[in-house]
From TrEMBL:
It is an enzyme of class 3 (hydrolase). Keywords: Aminopeptidase, Hydrolase, Protease. InterPro entries: AB_hydrolase, AB_hydrolase_1, AB_hydrolase_fold, Peptidase_S33. This is Proline iminopeptidase. GO terms for molecular function: aminopeptidase activity. It holds the Pfam family Abhydrolase_1. Residues 26-273 form the AB hydrolase-1 domain. PANTHER family: BLL5160 PROTEIN, HYDROLASE, ALPHA/BETA FOLD FAMILY PROTEIN.
Amino acid sequence: MTTTETVTTDDGVRLWAERSGRGATPLVLCHGGPGLWDMFDDVAGLLGDLATVIRWDQRGCGRSGPCDGPWTVERFVADLEAVRRHFGLDRTALLGHSWGAQLALHHTLAHPDRVSTLVYVSGTGIGPDTGWHGAYKENQRARLGERPERLARWRELTDMPGRDGAQEREWAVLHWSAEFPDTDRATEHAERMAEPWLGINAACNKQLNAAARSACGTPGLYAACAALDVPVLIVDGAEDIRPRSAVDSLERALPHVTRVTFPEAGHLPWVEDPRAFQEAVAASLGSG
């Protein structure tokens, strides 16, 4: 059974949330972005027999209520805590993807006694982004350039001031198509991500990305990860356009870590290798 609920944070912001699945283990999913919304339909379906899956849209995004921030890592960690409390969970497994992997990690560091296991999917580690961001941009343009017309239109829309809603959606689909190594199906996969189209919160994206960057590469973050007594599964797609070497910093720091890399997957590994993704997460949930 699937139920939709509203979580109210301590500062009065309304968050969309949904519970599904019938497994005994509670599992909260943290979507990427920042500024996007939950796109975990497939993941919830894959894991519903293993866990009771809770999905939510982060503040000011997607189906959650409008707000003006604040767009800080600490505020989003507190929002995730509000989700946990709303559903009456003493401890929960967390699965975060991309920016959501960073959020889930920061929540685990802040509240290790409330997290049974962390599944860190397609994140970018804990080092400074100068170590990977330039290569990511180059890889993105190279993959878009495999279809020159796609790259040309993406560039046109990127430089277009005041894009309307339809143009913003078209830009996002082109942008996301670079996340998939199968060029023939990339647009199809990206179109699924954009359905339904709920719009991108640009202020959230800009300010929260800056806040997350400022937290990376600090001695305190390395030390906190080294002291973390929670099992962590790192999941990578080898064909992610973000260099996977960025995640080495996190893997080296963690004392209880397993890493699984899917050789033919990109940034959304459950799309290209759903069975292997399901098996890897199942093993992690069993050990938490």
